[in-house]
Specification:
There is one protein chain. This protein is mainly β. It has a single domain, classed as Metal Binding Protein, Guanine Nucleotide Exchange Factor, Chain A. It is built from 2 helices and 11 strands, in the order E-E-E-H-E-E-E-E-E-E-E-E-H. The strands form 4 sheets. A 3-stranded antiparallel beta sheet has the order 1-2-5, with no helix packed on it. The longest helix is centred in the C-terminal third of the chain and has 9 residues. The protein is globular, with a radius of gyration of 14 Å. The protein starts with a strand and ends in a 5-residue tail after the last helix. 29% of the residues are buried. The chain binds zinc ion (2 copies).
Length: 144
């Protein structure tokens, strides 16, 4: 499956099955995406390829390690490596819209915006789950 930014200059490909999606409702993800939450997934680095535009990606890293990569032409959030792990964080809104994807988790419920109503199904976490448990959930084949 392919994905691209708003202006189309950054384009990437994910090989194989796309893992399930999650939404994080924390204040950082709100500001990064400009909305109530983000919607994203985490794919194995071996299944991820840049097709074009990698050289125009800008990166901002907060002292805490929170990282936001974005297209320097249009500002869309774009994929970035998950810390130093062999995984890539992928914003779901960049993917082909007709993909059969499923939201399986909501993170940082305790710090969501007061006006944020969570309508989609999925496991709800007050903060963030432990990473290996979370990766297992995203990559599980069963329905939530
Ligand atoms: Zn762009
Ligand atoms: Zn977040």
């Amino acid at each position: 499956m392919h994905g691209e930014c708003l202006c189309g200059q950054v384009k990437f490909e994910i090989l194989g099955r796309i893992p399930k999606l999650y939404q994080c409702h924390c204040s950082l993800c709100r500001k990064q995406g400009g909305s109530s939450s983000n919607a994203a997934t985490i794919v194995a680095a071996e299944n991820f390829r840049w097709l074009r535009g990698e050289e125009i990606i800008s990166s901002w890293v907060k002292d805490s390690g929170f990282r936001s990569d974005f297209c320097s032409k249009c500002g869309s959030p774009v994929p970035n490596p998950l810390r130093n792990l062999p995984y890539v964080w992928v914003p779901a809104g960049l993917l082909d819209a007709n993909a059969q994807l499923e939201i399986c988790a909501h993170l940082s419920i305790a710090s969501k915006a007061a006006w944020d109503t969570i309508a989609s199904p999925g496991v709800k976490y007050e903060t963030v789950p432990e990473l290996s448990e979370f990766l297992e959930l995203l990559h599980s084949k069963t329905h939530a």
